[in-house]
């Protein structure tokens, strides 16, 4: 705009007359005055022309200055704008990095939370399965303990040295009483005939009562053991029983198998079952070692073996004779009773428990000597 106005101004100034004539205000009186007036008019025209040129030059210089200042101002504004744009770009870049970092952290946190949640679920399922398994085992143990307590009550309460249970221990009664009780239990209508036959064929035996006296040494050893029951053989009470009863009762001809039987009895892992109820007829050991229905594996003698034993979970069965079964059963009964005492299941005074232990020791001694019930 400044260049266009300046050019237009210059063109307008060129079109104007170079010299202007001034009309006199007053009429001149003579011809001499007219030349002076003309000179004055020429001088005034030169002055006005020079003034106009100066004005034009001033305008030109001012427009140049304005143009330079305007360009400088625009350059400064442009520089500021570019600087601000650079700052904005840096800020946008920084914010983009922050956003990417936050997104990455959020993804990692989400992944870790899912992993932790899955881990907790797995642990909870594992603990639940273990708890259910422990609960089932606990219920099984409770049922087993209840059955053992019931059997113990039947054994201890209904069968004491002073009043034994003849049905649980038929070997303690005389033959005449045994026959009478068996006949009476099977058929009440024929009991009189059985009694008559027994009275005719058997002479009445004199009724005798056992006399008992406590051995002070044995009773003191039992009392000492009863204060802190243990299955350790180092105590004097069990050491004596091992030497006098358990060891001789489990001392069979086959020494190696006898030792295995003793260990299984001590660990409560020996199983006795009738031969007729066997499910697995396959025998994993040799016939010579395991015996057979007509040969005892412990004594090596030809005997009718109605039972067989298994040591632990080995799956190996050994056929045993009735005499060997009576010896093993007597030792098992003794260990079962002292385990009940150790577990606190026997609620009796010291003296009845002592006599029950003596009775079990007598059964071991009788079995060792070859005495056993006919039901074996």
From TrEMBL:
The UniProt entry, under CDD domains, shows:
Rab11BD_RAB3IL1 (cd21069)
GO BP of this protein: exocytosis; protein transport
Question: What organism, scientifically named, is this protein from?
Answer: Pavo cristatus
Residues forming the GDP/GTP exchange factor Sec2 N-terminal domain are 49-146
Q: What protein am I looking at?
A: RAB3A interacting protein like 1
UniProt keyword terms in alphabetical order: Coiled coil, Guanine-nucleotide releasing factor, Phosphoprotein, Protein transport, Transport
Which residues does the annotated region (Disordered) include? 1-63
One term of GO molecular function? guanyl-nucleotide exchange factor activity
Q: Looking at the Swiss-Prot or TrEMBL record, what is one Pfam family this protein matches?
A: RAB3A-like_C
Q: What is the lineage of its organism?
A: Eukaryota, Metazoa, Chordata, Craniata, Vertebrata
Q: Where is the composition biased (Polar residues)?
A: 46-63
Quote the Gene3D superfamilies the UniProt record gives: 1.20.5.4880
Question: Any coiled-coil ranges, and where?
Answer: 71-119
